[in-house]
Known about the structure:
Structural class of chain B: alpha+beta
Number of domains of chain A: 3
Radius of gyration of chain B: 15 Å
Largest interface: A-B, 12 and 15 residues
Helix content of chain B: 10-25%
Oligomer: heterodimer
Largest sheet of chain A: 10 strands, mixed
Number of strands of chain B: 7
Order of helices and strands of chain B: EHEHEEEEHHEH
Distance between the termini of chain B: 22 Å
Number of helices of chain B: 5
Shape of chain A: elongated
Number of helices of chain A: 16
Amino acid sequence: MTSVVDAAIAECLSSPDSKYETIEQIKDAASALHQTHACSLCILRFLQIPFGPVYQDQDTPLYEQLGLSEQSAEPCPVCLGILSHDVARQIAEKYTSQDFDAQQVTLGIEVPKSIYVRHRSMQIFCSANTMTQVHNVVDVKDTLKYLVAQQLANHNVAVVAECDTQIDIAFAHAETARDCQFLADQTNMANSRVAIVAKLTACSDAEFTAHFASPPPLVTTRALVTVSTKRASIFVGGRYLKLERNISQTPFIVEGRRVTEHSVSEIIGNPIQQLTKCDSYNMVGSGREDADVRMLGDGRPFYIECINPRRTRTLDEDICNIERTLSTTNSPVQARRLQVIRAQDTAIIKEGEENKTKHYCALVWFAHELSQEKLAEINDLGKHEIVLEQKTPVRVLHRRAPLTRPRKLLALAIEHIEGRFYRVRIESEAGTYIKEFVHGDLGRTVPSLAGLADSPADIFELDVECVSLDFPPPAI
Amino acid sequence: LCVIGLASSHPLLDPELRKHIGDVIKVEFADNVKNSVIKGKRKKQSLRLMPSTKLCTIHTSDGKEYVVRAAIKGVLMEWNARLETDPTLVSRCPEQGFVAIIKPSTDDNQKIFSDCVPEI
């Protein structure tokens, strides 16, 4: 009955990379490596045995199959205990516990710097005592990736070179922290990994063994592993409507208390967070309106970035449901064209904020009723472009730089409603302070509606009727 | 922020009294106010003001002078340069004729107005 090892050895012998020609040679080499207290997996690596069932967790321990005496319980001085089926299982479990709906994952592995030093040490030993082509030895990181991939395969997850989901694996080994010190001393660069590896390549075998033992010295502790998982953000874009007043765009908290009970980001973001099971989200809108201003018409473009989402596939129908639910339950904040978008589609939101015009409708009060002539005069003026010079409004002066900004009104129309109340429609350039245009802000916005009407004026209600940026593409 | 201007009980805002004291002919801002640097979001270099700091002197056609002081402790955000070219604005239209805008050095309303009295 051929053992797994025998099959692997046979395969190895037939490989062109290997200098081994007989089973005996391989078994002798295995025995020599075993003397160094290296673990079975490291022995396989330094015998240049390719990946296969022999590397996987088996009932009969490898050393037994190779006909060697029992392994010591001490951690392997070459891989410091990194290559272990238990460690691989631990890593796989950490990943599956997160419940990502991904079918592919990428592994990022960081090993202690001493691994490189000990690898070189073992290479030197190998050249002296075995027939292994030391430059073709199986890499330790690749081996760990293989072990983890085997574990993940049980959960239908494939390991690939690049994808949106990542497992970061970091090993630390305090006991051998000083191993690479002799190399660091030679360079005046910091203890960086790149510098150490470069120095190792430049170092000759003789130089190396003068500072570090070959085979590598034994260790008593295993390397400690830290596993973290992350996934690329997913973006949900759309347009939001605000049908009631006193709702801020994002939670508005001053001195620990909420100023507005609700916020657009929470009303739309919370259901999306529940759906994608992300850690957190942020909302980015193409501009914003005051909490006491409604956003009507087709809404204002925005996107929500979901951080570290657990669920990213087949979201379309559920996203449509969120939009529909907000609408049918007459939520004060609703969404339109809600859909998953690509990361690169988000740039247009900020571009539109600067360039696109907005349409407003305001309820304005004047101290004196306006005559018909005055109304006609203002409406005529409003048919042409009006250029405003706006000093930073007093109400935001505490948090914005004091500047005078020129802004254009592209259209202005006023009509009488009743008494001293008038309806004013405005189309303006992005970044125009509408409230300040109406009351004049102590004469710091000129011209102003109060100035044009020759009467103090104030704004009672303001609605944004249209934000002219076409985003996202209309729902199918 | 606080906007500083003439109180409604100020003699300059009473047309009857103006017959005796004269009309406003000039508003002269203090040098440190005119030379102040108010730049950027944080306005770090802005002029620090105490309640007694003089902001400007208002001159009338009869030679009378009225000094307007900061009245609160804080930092200068803006002084009304329009009063230099149109001084009568200060008595004609107290709102557009404000003198200065000050950022109080504390958020506590009680402390801000500790040196002030309410209008009757």
